[in-house]
Design a protein that fits this description.
By secondary structure, this protein is an alpha+beta fold. The chain has four helices and seven strands. The longest helix has 15 residues, at about 75-90.
Length: about 160
């Protein structure tokens, strides 16, 4: 199974709708304005995060983050830490994201890690669900100690 196949399989397992397409994953992996981070255990993809950057914009966007349901605890946090590290490495002053209003587990993770709610968008998701918008300042040089258990996926 290719890296893209594994990403699509995980995406289809974790999300019921609003999924990232194979074409979009391929684009993100090769784009200069995106970073795709992956977590693996025993040679199996256990999670990913996609961070987007815009030229001329001091902020970054956590476009998507997912951990396999059977991956065990801690992968969401590791991926979030790696996404923040990627944002800081690119000089981003903040990291923003959207999360479903009813995704309590994700909202708790973000809030425990210093994200503050800055707004909401009604009807953001395909099923009409509201998204809460969150943001966290990226203090340059404030990276957490320790080697990341997550690596960047880059197509040659």
């Amino acid at each position: 199974m290719s890296d893209i196949d594994a990403l699509v399989a995980l995406e289809n397992t974790v999300f019921e709708a609003d999924r990232i397409s194979r074409k979009s994953f391929r684009h993100f992996v090769s784009a200069d304005t995106a970073v795709v981070l992956i977590a693996e255990a025993a040679g199996k993809l256990t999670g990913y995060a996609v961070v987007l950057f815009r030229k001329g914009n001091a902020g970054a966007r956590l476009y998507s983050i997912a951990a396999a349901p059977d991956a065990g605890n801690g992968y969401g946090r590791k991926l979030l830490d790696a996404a923040e590290r990627a944002a800081r490495d690119r000089g981003a002053r903040s990291l923003r994201l959207e999360v479903r209003h009813d995704n309590d587990r994700a909202r708790i993770l973000y809030e425990k890690n210093g994200y503050r709610r800055i707004g909401e968008v009604a009807g953001y998701y395909a099923d009409g669900a509201t998204a809460f918008k969150y943001e966290k300042p990226m203090n340059i040089g404030a990276a957490k100690a320790g080697a990341p258990a997550v690596m960047e996926l880059r197509r040659a």
